[in-house]
Structures are given as C-alpha cells and as structure tokens.
C-alpha cells in the first residue's frame, strides 16, 4: 500500500495567466488578476494552482520560452506580485505549482546569448551544436514539434543549434553537468520562495541522444530525474508532475513509483491522441468510445499500486473537453457534468483547466489571422503551402488548435467577458454572454456547483481517493461505468457518453432499492432495478448499501 501524501486527495486548477484575468486593462492577464480571483478558486474548492509560465520571456510561445527563470515577465507583474500571490494563496490553503520549462530556454536567455558568441564560449556547451553537413545543410532530418527542421543555422559561428520547439527555444544540453547544476540551483531558489511543487514541461525529452535519433525517453532520462529529485525537491513534500507525451503505463511507473524517488505523477496523453489520425492533430477523427474506455481503464488498473495517475481532460494545449467529448450545444450542461463526474471519480489527482468548471467551449474564428498560437500558425502555413485546402486546415484548427483553450476566461456578461476593458491579446469566445462565472454562481444547478460538489466529495469519501477501480459494462459502446471499492464503500459510477437514451440490463450485483446517490446530472437515483434507462449524457454515482 502507498504511503498517503497530501496530493493524493488534492484537486489542481490550471491557470493560463495570459488569459485568466487582466487587472490593469492592457489586454493581457496578470498576477494581480489571479490574486483578485483567489476567493473564487477557494469557493470552487481547489487546493493547488498550476501556474503556466510567468517568467520573463519574449513570449514566442507565450512564456514557454524563458529568458530569466528568476524574474517575472513585466506584462504579468513583478517578483513582489509573485510573492504576494504566494502569500495570499497560502492564507487560503492553496499551494502554487510552478511550470518548470527546462528542456529549452529562450534564445534571449543570457546563457544562449553567450553560447552563440563563439565556439569556445564557456556557455557554448549549455546548448546542442553540430556542424553543417557538407554543402551546408542541417546535420540530420530531425523535425521540430512546431514544424520544419529541428536545426537552426547560426551565422556567427557557422554551426547549427538544436530546437525541438520553435527556433526561439533552443534545447539545453542536459549532458552538461553545469546545466544540471544551474537548473537545480534555480529550482531550489523557487522552493525557498514557498512554492508547492513543479509541473515539468516536456520532461521526458531531457535524456535525449540526438546522434542516435533518440529524443523521448532516452537512456539518460531517469538517472537525471533521480539526481534532480535528490538535489532539489526530494525531501520537501512537494507535488511534482511531469508532462510525458511518450509515457506508457510501464514508463509512468518508472516516473511515479514512490520507491524510485522521481516524481509524484505524470501526465499521460494516450486517451488524448485517440482522436488524432495516426498521431496527427491536424487530422482529427471522432472519438472511439470503446478504445477510450480501454485506455483509461488500462491506466487505472496498471498504476494501481506502483504509481499515481493524474486525471485531466484538457489543458492549455488541448481543445475544450465539452466540445471534444461532450456536446457543446443542446446538452452542454449535462455532458459537461457527465465528463466531470467520469474524471473526478477515477483514482488519481484531478486537474481542472480554467473555464472547464463553467463549461467553456472551443472557439471557431473565421480567419486564421485571429489565431495567435505559434503551433497553429506554423502548421496552417506549412500544410496549406503543401496543398491542404485552407478550409480543411481551418476546420482542423477549429477542432484542435491550442487557442481553443486560450481565449480569455469568461467572468461575466460585460464587454470582453469581464476579462479586460481593453482589446484582449486573443479575442473572447462570442458565447460569453451565456457561459460565464457570474451566471454560473447564480444558478444552483450550474456546472460550477457540480465541480464544487465533486471536489467536496473527494475530501469526504476516502473510496474516491484510494479505492480500487473495476470497470463494468466494459464492452458497451455508449456508457463508461466503473466501481470503486474499499473496506467501507462500494461506489458505482455510470456515465452515458451519448445524446441518446440507453437501456441497460443491470447485473444482480448492481441492483438495489436503496442506493445513496452522491452526485447526478438529472434526478438522483435511489432504485436500481433489473433494467435502467439512461437519459442523454446522464451520469450518476451511487454508494451501494
Ligand atoms: O507542450 C509539449 C508539446 O509537445 C505540445 O506542444 C504538444 O505537442 C502540442 O501542443 C500538441 O500538438 C509543452 C507545453 O505544454 C506547451 O504549451 C509548449 O508550447 C511546449 O511544451 C514547449 O515548451
Ligand atoms: Ca494586464
């Protein structure tokens, strides 16, 4: 059995600072904006905030390109604002997790500015340089995740540097012990500021061995992480969550098995990429529910005693969950609640992405010019130049662009959704008059209160946190159902993932006349007979007597 940790029953709320709340009306969300909404988050019930990057940055990738790890971007505020945020959050028992982006820095980071000066500069080996091939072309065919080559030629010294993301995000050379020490020192500095942990950006890329063509899950990865753990957060009781696109359950155990002393947990993306044809997000395909259930079940079962799951449907890189797996039209409220219940009652630590708790939806701007995300813009250009029809590409953008998640948060029905009185950096979703926090707070049956309830239940019912997970109706193509059990309770969770009524024959073991319904999105159920008819997107959880 696993030693209980504070983050086992925590619920994390992700803030994308640029889009959360703009306190000084320059069109960009900021730290004072976040401080002004802490009471709102307290009311929701979350006890951890994952803050997407707020460090000094030229913002080529909205802060995932850091030019000073120990300072705050002026558009977000100052270090004093950051200290105030930490203190005000602490008063409300909310911990702050910093986003640690150390696979790469900005090309405007002083390390890179030095490194590019000359081949014998002391910082040269902080990054990855290779000579051109004969004739001057890039050292190899490795592509960037944001499109084009992963190699950028640098005039000054006549060599190429390596970047898995934009050319303004050169990869750090983790084979260099100096890089390791600098990063550890910086992490310890943040720990001293009183943070609650780290979310480690694309951390499974730091063990790369590019000359062998290895980027993800390289042979040097786990030794590096164990060293990081020892040198920084290991004895500090912090929450650490690695972003690991390449993780299988086996790999996730390497990261999160407590005995190995690496991370608390990782984000895995296997359920996410099921709607990408051959792993290509610009070729979206419909959700295959049986496959989706199989993946989620596999992760629940396999990490049972040797790891810990993080539970999430969306984040700042992904489309809005209600648009993706639910119904953003007629059944928006029902389906958003169903998805919340499905996620929060599984075993693991749930993450709520800003706006998810009010059922915010994807956005569909008519013109590519209204998009801001570097990945979206790069791929739109690349694919349309290579013959994909602009309409086809725009449809894919509507489906999967990262900007779906990044439109400003809807606070109320005033101009720009109460986010800013000025033109926001990215336009608001035009549906804000209907979908906003003020409206949700006034309606006792809103999605917001459903999330609030789920978060409360996690604090009061240990079976949600530690109970075993057992799938039921495993082969059903419309419902996702499971039973969570511990010595005290048996919790049956049933979710209709479709807009259709579903008639189910319940096995004997799941029938009862007096179930205790703990949450539902239609009427509470007390009797579960032989046959059950579920309404569109109906979802409920009952404690069996
Ligand atoms: O994301 C990692 C990453 O690989 C994503 O860019 C992902 O591949 C893409 O969105 C899906 O198509 C992390 C951050 O979450 C992201 O915001 C950053 O842009 C990226 O790293 C670089 O730091
Ligand atoms: Ca601002």
Condensed summary:
It comes from Photobacterium marinum. This protein is of the alpha/beta class.
Detailed description of the structure:
The protein has three domains: 6-102 and 177-451, Glycosidases (TIM Barrel), CATH 3.20.20; 110-162, Oligo-1,6-glucosidase, Domain 2 (Oligo-1,6-glucosidase, domain 2); 466-543, Sandwich (Immunoglobulin-like), CATH 2.60.40.1180. 28% of the residues lie in helices and 17% in strands. The protein has helices spanning 31-36, 38-44, 79-91, 110-115, 177-192, 221-231, 249-256, 289-302, 321-325, 332-344, 374-385, 390-400, 403-406, 437-442, 447-460, 462-466, and strands at 12-15, 48-51, 55-56, 68-72, 95-100, 129-130, 151-154, 159-162, 197-200, 239-243, 265-267, 276-277, 280-284, 310-311, 349-353, 468-472, 479-485, 490-496, 502-505, 516-520, 531-534, 539-543. The strands form six sheets. It has an eight-stranded parallel beta sheet with strand order 11-10-9-5-2-1-15-14, with helices on one face. Strands 16-17-18-22-20 form a five-stranded antiparallel beta sheet. It has a three-stranded antiparallel beta sheet with strand order 6-8-7, with no helix packed on it. The protein starts with 11 loop residues before the first strand and ends with a strand. The structure holds 1-O-alpha-D-glucopyranosyl-D-fructose and calcium ion. Calcium ion binds next to loops. The site of calcium ion has 6 residues, from loops.
């Amino acid at each position: 059995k696993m030693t209980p940790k504070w983050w086992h029953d925590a619920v994390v709320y992700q803030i994308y600072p640029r889009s959360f709340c703009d306190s000084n009306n320059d069109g960009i969300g900021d730290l004072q904006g976040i401080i002004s909404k802490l009471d709102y988050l307290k009311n929701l019930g979350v006890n951890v905030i994952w803050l997407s990057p707020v460090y000094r940055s030229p913002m080529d990738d909205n802060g995932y390109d850091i030019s000073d790890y120990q300072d705050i971007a002026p558009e977000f505020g100052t270090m004093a604002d950051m200290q105030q945020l930490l203190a005000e959050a602490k008063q409300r028992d909310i911990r702050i997790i910093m986003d640690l982006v150390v696979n790469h820095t900005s090309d405007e980071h002083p390390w890179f500015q030095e490194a590019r000066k000359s081949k014998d500069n002391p910082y040269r080996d902080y990054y990855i340089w290779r000579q051109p091939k004969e004739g001057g072309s890039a050292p190899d065919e490795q592509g960037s995740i944001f499109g084009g080559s992963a190699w950028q030629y640098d005039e000054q010294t006549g060599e190429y540097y390596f970047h898995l993301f934009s050319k303004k995000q050169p990869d750090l050379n983790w084979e260099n012990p100096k890089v390791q020490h600098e990063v550890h020192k910086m992490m310890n500095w943040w720990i001293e500021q009183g943070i609650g942990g780290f979310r480690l950006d694309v951390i499974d890329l730091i063990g790369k061995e590019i000359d062998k063509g290895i980027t993800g899950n390289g042979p040097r990865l786990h030794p590096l992480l164990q060293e990081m753990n020892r040198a920084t957060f290991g004895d500090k009781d912090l929450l650490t969550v690695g972003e690991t696109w390449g993780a299988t359950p086996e790999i996730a155990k390497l990261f999160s098995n407590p005995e190995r002393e690496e991370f608390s947990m990782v984000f895995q993306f296997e359920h996410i990429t099921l709607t990408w044809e051959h792993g290509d997000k610009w070729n979206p395909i419909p959700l295959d529910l049986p496959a989706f259930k199989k993946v989620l079940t596999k992760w629940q079962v396999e990490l049972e005693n040797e790891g810990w799951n993080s539970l999430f449907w969306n984040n700042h890189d992904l489309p809005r969950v209600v648009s993706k797996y639910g119904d953003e039209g007629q059944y928006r409220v029902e389906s958003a609640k169903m998805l919340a219940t499905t996620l929060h009652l599984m075993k693991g630590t749930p993450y709520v992405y800003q706006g998810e708790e009010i059922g915010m939806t994807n956005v569909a701007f008519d013109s590519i010019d209204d998009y801001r995300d570097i990945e979206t813009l790069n791929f739109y250009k690349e694919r349309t130049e290579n013959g994909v029809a602009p309409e086809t590409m725009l449809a894919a953008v509507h489906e999967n662009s990262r900007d779906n998640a990044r439109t400003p948060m809807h606070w109320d029905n005033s101009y720009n959704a109460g986010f800013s009185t000025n033109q926001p950096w990215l336009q608001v979703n035009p549906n804000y008059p209907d979908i906003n926090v003020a409206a949700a707070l006034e309606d006792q049956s809103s999605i917001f209160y459903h999330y609030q309830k789920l978060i409360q239940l996690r604090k009061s019912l240990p079976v949600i946190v530690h109970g075993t997970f057992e799938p039921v109706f495993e082969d059903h193509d419309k419902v996702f159902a499971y039973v969570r059990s511990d010595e005290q309770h048996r919790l049956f969770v049933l979710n209709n993932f479709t807009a259709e009524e579903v008639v189910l024959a319940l096995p004997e073991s799941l029938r009862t006349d007096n179930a205790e319904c703990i949450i539902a999105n239609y009427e509470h159920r007390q009797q579960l007979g032989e046959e059950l008819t579920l309404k569109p997107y109906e979802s409920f959880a009952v404690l069996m007597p």
